[in-house]
Design brief:
- 35% of the residues are buried.
- This protein has a domain of 104 residues: Alpha-Beta Horseshoe (Leucine-rich repeat, LRR (right-handed beta-alpha superhelix)), CATH 3.80.10.10.
- The strands form two sheets. Strands 1-2-3-4-5-6-8-10 form an eight-stranded parallel sheet, with no helix packed on it. Strands 7-9-11-12 form a four-stranded parallel sheet, covered by helices on one side.
- With 200 residues, it is mostly beta strands.
- It is built from one helix and twelve strands; from the N terminus they run E-E-E-E-E-E-E-E-E-E-E-H-E.
């Protein structure tokens, strides 16, 4: 257990790389940034920290993560855990999401219209739809179980993508096939997949 000064006005807390197994954050309601990467956390209770905008909790042993009470959350790095589900429906300001190397089977981003960068590689996700994310500039979905990808967000000319090592993915939906082939190309997808405006 990490002992932290009982300071309700504390806004930034970084205890990364400390082999911490548990922590009580309830005495810090004003916490704005929390970084606890590379520890031994199995749980992370931030239900009493509604002001958190930046959360870095990668490389722990988390099996779940509840961010439903963090409406200001814009930056979430939770990769290299064992998280099975991630509800982001209340995180309307989310712009940077790195949830790679978890056990996610689905990811609903329909409410995250300000999402700018996304890495969900090395999960078990079968489909991804970013048509509601016009600000997205980078998406990495390599090594999943993808069979369906919708990249028709109306801003394909500013989007870089990587979807390699998804052997069941045969078609990726884009806004402009010709542009995607010439400027984005097939470097980021398997040879078994094609680009199309409609994969139905």
């Amino acid at each position: 257990m990490l002992n932290i000064e009982n300071n309700p006005l504390l806004e930034v807390l970084d205890f990364s790389m400390n082999q911490i197994e548990t922590i009580d954050l309830s005495v810090h309601p004003n916490l704005f940034r929390l970084y606890c990467t590379m520890n031994n956390l199995t749980t992370l209770d931030i239900s009493n920290n509604p002001e958190i905008a930046s959360l870095g909790c990668s490389s722990n042993s988390l099996t779940s993560l509840d961010v439903s009470n963090q409406p200001m959350l814009s930056w979430l790095w939770c990769g290299r855990n064992s998280i099975e589900s991630l509800d982001l429906s209340n995180n309307l300001l989310l712009s940077d999401l790195r949830c790679f190397e978890n056990k996610l089977t689905q990811l609903d981003l329909s409410n995250n219209i300000w999402l700018y960068e996304l890495d969900f590689s090395d999960n078990q996700i079968a489909s991804i739809d970013i048509s509601s994310n016009p600000e997205l500039r980078m998406v990495i979905g390599a090594r999943n179980q993808l069979t369906y990808v919708n990249l028709r967000n109306g801003n394909i000319t500013n989007l870089s993508a990587l979807f390699t090592d998804n052997p069941n993915l045969t078609c990726i939906m884009v806004d402009d096939v010709s542009f995607s082939q010439n400027y984005w190309g097939y470097d980021g997808i398997d040879s078994t997949a094609v680009l199309s405006i409609d994969c139905l």
